[in-house]
């Protein structure tokens, strides 16, 4: 059940040569998707521990830079003869997952600030 959910959620191919194995059993998702999943959890933990977010585009730029290694690795693999390994896939996925969480938090905070400004501009605030 969880295997099917994870594969659908990530759109994962789960190719054996791109997956980790434990005791002869393949993990339900490939190494890159596993990195993204762990990155989600790490990003949430980091966000809870370190208050770096202010809804500005500064953190968004960092998040964008953290996404780039996964994109570069994946595109290079697609258009050249270069083949990544599972450790690189896991690490680039981990950075990408953290960056997604950071981006979502920043998007939320930016939206809240924008909504506050709109309410003030429209004179709808209850002061």
Core attributes:
single chain; 127 residues; mainly alpha; 2 strands
Query: With helices defined by DSSP (H or I, 4 residues minimum), what is the helix count?
Result: 4
Strand content: under 5%
Share of helical residues:
55-70%
Mean pLDDT across every amino acid position: 89
| Unreliable segments of 5+ consecutive residues | none
Q: Write down the Rg.
A: 19 Å
Order of helices and strands: HEEHHH
Judged by helices, strands and strand pairing, the structural class is mainly alpha
Question: What separation lies between the terminal Cα atoms?
Answer: 51 Å
Summarize the structure in words.
This protein is mainly alpha-helical. The chain has one domain. Helices cover about 70% and strands about 5% of the residues. It is built from four helices and two strands, in the order H-E-E-H-H-H. It has a two-stranded antiparallel ribbon with strand order 1-2. A hairpin with a 2-residue loop joins strand 1 and strand 2 (about 25). Helix 2 (about 30-50) crosses helix 4 and helix 3 (about 55-80) runs antiparallel to helix 4 (about 85-120). The relative contact order is 0.16.
């Amino acid at each position: 059940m969880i295997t099917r959910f994870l594969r659908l959620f990530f759109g994962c191919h789960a190719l054996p040569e791109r997956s980790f194995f434990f005791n002869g059993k393949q993990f339900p998702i490939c190494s890159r998707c596993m990195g993204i999943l762990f990155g989600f959890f790490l990003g949430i933990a980091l966000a809870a521990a370190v208050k770096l977010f202010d809804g500005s585009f500064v953190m968004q730029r960092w998040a964008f830079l953290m996404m780039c290694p996964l994109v570069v690795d994946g595109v290079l693999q697609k258009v050249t003869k270069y083949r990544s390994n599972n450790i690189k896939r896991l690490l680039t996925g981990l950075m990408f997952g953290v960056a997604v969480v950071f981006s979502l938090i920043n998007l939320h905070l930016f939206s809240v600030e924008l909504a506050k400004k709109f309410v003030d501009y429209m004179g709808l605030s209850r002061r």
